[in-house]
Amino acid sequence: MSTTLHWGIIGPGRIAHKFADALAYCDHNQLVAVASRSQQNADAFASRWQLAHAYDDEAALLANPQVQAVYIATPHNYHYPAAMRALKAGKHVLIEKPACVNAAQFARLCELAEQHDCMLMEAVWSRFLPYVAQAKQWLADKRIGEVQSIQSSIGIAFEHGPEHRINNKALAGGAMLDLGVYALSLSQFMLGQSHTAIQALGKLSADGVDESVMATVQYSGGQLAQFATSIVSQQQNALHVYGSEGTITLEPRFWSGSQVSLQRGDDIQTLTLPWAHNGFEYQIEDMARCILVGKRQSDVVPHRDTLAVLTQMDEVRRQIGLYYGDEFEKV
Amino acid sequence: MSTTLHWGIIGPGRIAHKFADALAYCDHNQLVAVASRSQQNADAFASRWQLAHAYDDEAALLANPQVQAVYIATPHNYHYPAAMRALKAGKHVLIEKPACVNAAQFARLCELAEQHDCMLMEAVWSRFLPYVAQAKQWLADKRIGEVQSIQSSIGIAFEHGPEHRINNKALAGGAMLDLGVYALSLSQFMLGQSHTAIQALGKLSADGVDESVMATVQYSGGQLAQFATSIVSQQQNALHVYGSEGTITLEPRFWSGSQVSLQRGDDIQTLTLPWAHNGFEYQIEDMARCILVGKRQSDVVPHRDTLAVLTQMDEVRRQIGLYYGDEFEKV
């Protein structure tokens, strides 16, 4: 392959701009095409980022042989069909989180990725951030002894109307898929184990999405991870890893911060580890590196972790009575 | 009645000394007797607090007509039989938390209290503290809008050996009854509602007690309260009440602190409201006031709240597989 990876973006919304900004920062990566359902939106995005190709049709982008990798940045319910088509077209795929609406969809994508010899990764950008890497290193070094449990919250009092994606059941909205996924994915990342039990209680909004959820996951080593998530209240948004000899805390905004602290008794060490650019650059560089050396999944966001988190979210949704409907959950 | 309430203490351990210290601070309350299983311990306690009566037998204390009210400060499993005998002897009873090992026991004590026209209260001293009263006032004033949820943790890395009360199943040890009770009782106090669902996951120690528990309670208004508790890891030990317009936080050590904060957007107001003495004085004064005016339960710790919390703990223990045995759970 060329030493420069050529990217296309499907879904030129807010998150796509952030991705394009990060990609422009990364050597050996180039954004060349965008597809939207609206030619006007595609043109505006292409103009902003100086792209050669702007399509009002995802198929046209996938038919462009110059595009090697695709970043899918649509609302959640479009991730699966878009990723499926991209893999069938032989493109490497990075999907914004959550990778799919449910675990069965992602399992099918894993099959397709293997069949078509494509890299497939969920864009859990937080896992790559320097302060999260520092927390992982402290855990590996047993600086807090044996890990006992994790407690976190991720709640934002959005004031969007019912038509907004986050409140819209027809766009697979709600707290779990948008916010709770970070708590589950980072807990999974810290513990590196399979789950053995899940419990969830939640409250659905008048619009039918989960506005508040509290859940606990038990892992195979007996560790517990508990989190709260909400789209109607501002929460602490910290993540604490409690060990037998201390605590590691990521805060504020544990999923997109730069600060991590290690507490042992009364001694607290706090490190601020900023991002190189806007934080998305690390996942882009990891994806490109994997492709370059012929890997088809990332060690940082392996398929099994994405599957585990989606399986956990499926069970949380089952327990709180949230099903998005056959149209969006089909495989 | 005399305007001075005369007290006896059963179980002269560490907590009894704290209680005696607070009682000495309170006008219109006087400690006159102590009972222990050991005459030596009773004598030492009586000498320290200049008490007229020191017994090696609880029955002797209960037979003393001068004793009007009894504070039960034994290990948990002795609360119920001691309180039962005290009520039958016509004494007003304040029982260290948890009031009993299970809800059925406390329901029986409520019957006895009514039959014998005695005041009965669980010593949930935290509910009376000034900073908790401030939090309740902010809630009543809707300063954080509609309450959505509560998240708390109460974990202390004890380093006691297996023989210590906290690790000893034969003394009804473990995290829930000793620590988790505060999270449940203060959540109940903040929300003032009945529960509709409870979920718990936990890990039992080699000694058979709960060393870590994570649980969520759903209340009748849809609110959720989630907590973590542990006797093997130091936790954050904060309690956050999340509302639609802000957050109220009790920290550090939400059950025995003096600091409370109100956050609305970026605006944070923090108040430090110290105790008059050691914090136990408020429950003593409330008990004496209730008795003076002929009340038989406290508005701050009503029987229904103690029953609710014990019912929640029964369900938590059932889900994590912790039963102390017929000897201690019998009614």
Number of domains of chain A: 2
Q: Determine the CATH superfamily of the largest domain in chain A.
A: Dihydrodipicolinate Reductase, domain 2
What is the C-alpha radius of gyration of chain A, as a whole number of Å?
19 Å
Average the pLDDT over all residues of chain A and give the rounded result.
97
CATH topology of the largest domain in chain A: Dihydrodipicolinate Reductase, domain 2
**Structural class per helix/strand content of chain A?**
alpha/beta
What's the number of helices of chain A?
10
**Quaternary structure annotation:** homodimer
Largest interface: A-B, 37 and 37 residues
What is the name of the CATH class of the largest domain in chain A? Alpha Beta
CATH structural architecture of the largest domain in chain A:
2-Layer Sandwich
- Number of E-type strands of chain A: 14
Residue stretches of chain A low in confidence (pLDDT < 50, at least 5 long) are none
Share of residues in helices of chain A = 25-40%
State the end-to-end CA separation of chain A: 32 Å
Q: Please provide the ordered H/E string of secondary-structure elements of chain A.
A: EHEHEHEHEHEHEHEEEEEEEHHH
Strand order, sheet with most strands of chain A: 8-9-10-7-11-12-13-14
Main sheet characteristics of chain A? 8 strands, mixed
- What share of the residues of chain A does DSSP label as strand, in percent? 25-35%
